[in-house]
Write a structure and sequence with these properties.
- With 105 residues, this protein is mainly alpha-helical.
- 89% of the residues lie in helices and 0% in strands.
- The chain has one domain.
- Helix 1 packs antiparallel against helix 2, helix 1 packs across helix 3 and helix 2 crosses helix 3.
- The chain is rod-shaped, with a radius of gyration of 23 Å.
- It starts with a helix and ends with a helix.
């Protein structure tokens, strides 16, 4: 009799733990991973913009953006990160804006 009660309690604990993991832990891990990937792409966008500035120099904005976009596309594809070209473009523009603020400060 005691063994049956212990088994029922153990099953209940496992069901509750499974429900909690499915409801809270897995979504938290997924959101944390997505956020980490976004920050990584943002850092790479900054590095791509800085590299484009060094390689292409001043006054060649379209060439620098093309370089940065191509570089970022290779990085995100290699990392299996799904992101659109429009989103990459936004990240590049944000990195350029940040660089300009740093230069003018």
């Amino acid at each position: 009799m005691d063994r049956d009660i212990i088994m029922q309690i153990l099953r209940l604990v496992i069901m509750v733990a499974t429900a909690l993991i499915t409801t809270y832990l897995i979504p938290w891990i997924k959101s944390h991973t997505d956020t980490t990937k976004l920050y990584a792409v943002m850092r790479w966008a900054h590095e791509a913009v800085m590299a484009a500035e060094q390689i292409h120099g001043a006054g060649t904005g379209p060439e620098k953006k093309k370089f940065a976009m191509a570089f970022l596309r290779k990085v995100v594809d290699a990392a299996h990160i799904t992101i659109t070209d429009a989103e990459l473009s936004t990240l590049v523009e944000a990195a350029v804006g940040e660089m300009n603020i740093q230069i003018n400060s």
